[in-house]
Amino acid sequence: MSLVAQTSNQPLIVWDWIGRNLTNIWDRTVEHIVLTVIAVGIGVLISAGLSLIALRWRRSYSPITWVAGLLYTIPSLALFTFFVPFTGLSVLTAEIGLVSYTLLILVRNMVTGIVEVPSEVLEAADAMGYSRRGRFLRIELPLALPVIITGIRLATVTIIGLVTITSLIGLGGLGYFINRGLQTFSSPIGTTQIFVGTVLSIALAVTADLSLVGVERILTPWRTRRIGR
Amino acid sequence: MSKSPMITLNDVSKRFVGSVDDAVTNLSLTVDDGEIVTLVGPSGCGKTTTLRMINRLIEPSSGTITVAGSDVGTVPVHELRRTIGYVIQQVGLFPHRTVRQNIATVPSLLGWDTDHIGSRIDELVDLVAIDRSILGRYPLELSGGQRQRVGVARALAADPPVLLMDEPFGAVDPVVRGHLQGELLDLQSRLHKAIVFVTHDIDEAILVGDRIAILNTGGILEQFGTPGELLARPANQFVADFLGSDRAIKRLSLLPIDVSLLEPSLPGTAADQCMAAIDVGATLKEALDAIVSGNGRDVAVCAEDVCVGTVTIDMIHRRLTE
Lengths: 229, 322
Ligand SMILES: Nc1ncnc2c1ncn2[C@@H]1O[C@H](COP(=O)(O)OP(=O)(O)OP(=O)(O)O)[C@@H](O)[C@H]1O
Ligand SMILES: [Mg+2]
Prior knowledge:
Order of helices and strands of chain B: EEEHEEHEHHHHEHEHEEHHHEHEEH
Low-confidence stretches of chain A: 1-5
Number of domains of chain A: 1
Number of helices of chain A: 12
Distance between the termini of chain B: 28 Å
CATH topology of the largest domain in chain B: Rossmann fold
Shape of chain A: elongated
CATH architecture of the largest domain in chain B: 3-Layer(aba) Sandwich
Structural class of chain B: alpha/beta
Bound molecules: adenosine-5'-triphosphate, magnesium ion
Number of strands of chain A: 0
Number of domains of chain B: 2
Low-confidence stretches of chain B: none
Oligomer: heterodimer
Structural class of chain A: mainly alpha
Helix content of chain B: 25-40%
CATH class of the largest domain in chain B: Alpha Beta
Shape of chain B: globular
Radius of gyration of chain A: 22 Å
CATH architecture of chain A: Orthogonal Bundle
CATH class of chain A: Mainly Alpha
Largest sheet of chain A: none
Number of helices of chain B: 13
């Protein structure tokens, strides 16, 4: 690689640079987290609404997932730049794109989670005298949680990766460093920036995933707990 | 004294949407307070459908069902179901709830306070013989037999006058099954519920049922009567086949030794000869077994080490034909 060849007599990582830019790195990390949390949060709300519609009127499930699937296949470059003429280089533009990417995964997992609750459990709930609403909130939703949380984990990890692309429209969180690094990539500062952006972004994804696994454990003790022997 | 039955099915039929045949056809049945009625029949003959019509999980196509004197159609459905205990075919415990929470389901729905629920769970733990230590466990952490017991406790929690049991002991091995059957009878002798008990095992139906309803495909009632009546006088070939070729032996297992009909024992029979004898509380089936594995003619009967008489093969034969 030319990158390596050109810089073989220079350090690949300039540790000084990291020390000098700690504040900026921190700010971009926070921006990355905020963009992710907003996208997943709004994605969960919209998907919950869509899932309720799909569960209430089963016929709507195919069209809903079809549209969500279509959004999912649009190349991210195109999706983020498409709205620029309307909403400018703004957080809104970024979030429209990011949220679109969460819908397919979230709706699929929410609906599957509810539909897969065993029929004998539902029959027992009905026979005990639960109302339709009580059954949904107390039985179906808790039992669907593992599948729903798996969806949220997938969506979160996907979005953490995608946030870096929003550096194209002036945001990007840690993607900012990757973008800057690519522009000056023949210099040691450039490779350092790419390194910092990439490593921290991966670290964020892993941390988020593990935290959500922890949340799942806490919310669904009945699945993971085993009697110690 | 004619008290009205706790559950009445009057000419009930059910045809599912999209089906050309009735799943249940003109079925009339009654279940009294303190009585266990077993529903038996081949797979798909409408046993579960019949149960589910009683608590309105399924609406009948025609006919009426009353529970405790009122037409189930006139009672608000959630209220109705909270007064009918239901043990479903696949147990159906809530996997995300502990044993304690599972048992407390209906009392919670009825709005009982925590103390009341707590003391009720204490009673139920003894009643269905589950170990206190499992109260905090989740269903995944229980054995099959424990799950069945918890299912029964959950159905009994709010002390409903009516209990519907759909093959409640289907998923356990024969030994545990035997225990559970015995416990059910024991429980019933204290609780006096009106119980409809579904099974496709005729031996289980005979053992636990005060009366047996034998259903044929399409939910057609072939015969409804006590085990003794059915075994002595099966109404038709279907019932006879269903009861099995060992009907006479099954009947003997229902008949106790009648002390007043015993032949006198030989004078001076000592307790040592009673070693090979049977207890006065045994059934005629056990007496027959002792005879055929002994001298082939008779066997001594003793009560607390004293011989009270002899059962002969002739006597057993007379009891079957009377
Ligand atoms: N919801 C339903 N819709 C359509 N048909 C049904 C439905 N439930 C049951 N049936 C049909 O009604 C008939 C009686 O079913 P049911 O479940 O009452 O049988 P069962 O006697 O309980 O059988 P098993 O011993 O196998 O449990 C069957 O032919 C079954 O296919
Ligand atoms: Mg059944």
